[in-house]
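#struct-help
A.M.: can someone run this one for me? Single chain, 399 residues.
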Amino acid sequence: MVNRLTDTVSFRHGAQVHNRIVLPPMLTFSGEPGGFASPATLEYYRARSQAGGLLIAEYHYVSESGGPCTPAGVPEQLGIYDDDHFESIKAIAEALKKDGSKAILQIHHGGREAMGRAAKGKEVLAPSAIDYSFLSYPVREMTNEEIEEIIQDFGRATKRAIDAGFDGVEIHGANHYGIQQFFSKISNQRTDQWGGSLAKRMAFPLAVVKEVKRVVAQYAPKDFIIGYRISPEEIHGEAVGYTYKEALELIKEVIKHELDYIHLSLWTGYASKPQGADRTFADYFKEILDVQTKLIVVGGVFSEDAARDAVEHYTDLIAVGRGTIVDPQFGYKIDRGQGESIVHEISPEQLEKAHWTPGLLQAFTSEGSFGLPPIPNIESIQHLNTGKPEGFSGFSNAN
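D.P.: on it. Structure tokens below:
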């Protein structure tokens, strides 16, 4: 049977979503000092409450040492590392769930990428003490005790997400953050139980999965959703952190813990392939998943036709990133047979409907777009770049 975008999808533990469209986790550049949701954060998420059947809130760091992963002067990354953040995440859950979609919270530890922490004069922790040429600050190798505490922090963050009303959590093992750093040969040069062989480099990701599962089993509703996001390879020219074949070995172990979905973070599109391969990343990962573990793929979807192609040929659910940044009603329009009315590019008129945060506007309209992938027709709103939004001191420290 061919997948349709408007199919109801049932996850392993009983949760259902009303279509195959996913709002992926995307930084909103909107946090208040300390990592709390701002009014702009909540407005952004309320506007996207019908973007898809499954809505994943941006990454929240689980340990005080885990972030923020935004540079000085930028509205902070959001946190979930203590109970003071409970009302913040509860408000995000309510904003996303107001029209009946499922809300997921992405949880992570930044590891070496906690540049905002460095800017505050605090030491930055990583799997190994490596002098990275692209960082302006040193990193310290985590002790075994710190590693164990961070694993527990993932469990504590999961409990807060449950209590706040989220329908699930996504473990963030992608995009060069802490979990990926442990899996990578480049960033993990340890010789203890947390590094060395492939099996030992898997130890931290799997320990996090086990802890999240433990907390969910004890405190969550039966249909609580657990997902795991992974970058399917880490290759930078001659430097190889891991190949897609090694990533497949990790995910084979991850899915033994009966997660609901695996989420592939793809920069070059949902149909992208490993270099030299004749099959897509989605094909390789789909092949190893059992029938109850869904595959989510993100990358390069701006239209109903592209989303349809993705779910018909590559994946169970398609995450639409920039497409929902441009048109927050992406999924809503498809549900109602109005896919032809989806807006594919930004404009001054569409910006009013898109409810971007001031920080997001600043990021996309600044030179270099802060390293973000381009938004179609962004030149039409670049004149709205005022230099800095209120409370925003610029991107001069970005790399």
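A.M.: thanks! Residues 389-399 have pLDDT under 50 and may be disordered.
D.P.: also worth noting: The first strand starts at residue 9 and ends at 10.
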